[in-house]
Amino acid sequence: MAAPEIKTIEELKGATVGVTRFGSSSDFAMRYVLQKHGLRPDKDVTLLQLGGMIELATALAKKLVTAATLSSPADLRARKSGAQQLVNMASTGVSFPQSAIVTTRSYIQTHPDEILNFLRAYAEGMQRMIGDKATAKKVIQKYTRETDPDVVESTYRYGVDYIAPVLIRQKKASSKF
């Protein structure tokens, strides 16, 4: 997201942009987008690490940075201050795991039923999230203790738009084996 006067990524040349931490997913995303548009991070654009998403949104709102990589629901704060979306990372075709489910090969081999049950439950949960928005939003409210309906909606949309499609693509890909 960027200040309202910024219309293209190329206009960030000479600007300071925010990321949560160097080496984080927000840093990766910012560097990727800058390079894809012909800008050299740390040379053409100054990167400033600010800590967290809320700090990025606040810095953007206070004009301490010209752009920042924001995800939901922190992007709402930036939008309310006039910031606009320049790039949607979900539409770039870049897959970058924010979080992952991992285990050891030996655990998979010795506990195949538990692994399959977990994966089925996870997939069912994702299907329920997509198919039952009201329940999904109640769960979001319960576990985040968030009462702002805009934040809850934004968090739900993030789950549906960014998380669920990856699972669907993975399911299709794995069905070929």
Structural class: mainly alpha
Question: How large is the radius of gyration?
Answer: 19 Å
CATH superfamily of the largest domain: Periplasmic binding protein-like II
What is the strand tally?
Answer: 3
Q: Assign the CATH class of the largest domain.
A: Alpha Beta
- The first-to-last residue Cα distance is 39 Å
Overall mean confidence score, pLDDT: 88
- Overall shape: it is globular
SSE order, one letter for each helix or strand = EHEHEHHHHH
Subunit organisation of the chains: single chain
Number of helices: 7
- How do the strands line up in the largest sheet? 2-1-3
List the uncertain runs: 173-177
Number of separate domains: 2
The CATH topology name of the largest domain reads: D-Maltodextrin-Binding Protein, domain 2
Helix content: 40-55%
Q: Please outline the major beta sheet.
A: 3 strands, parallel
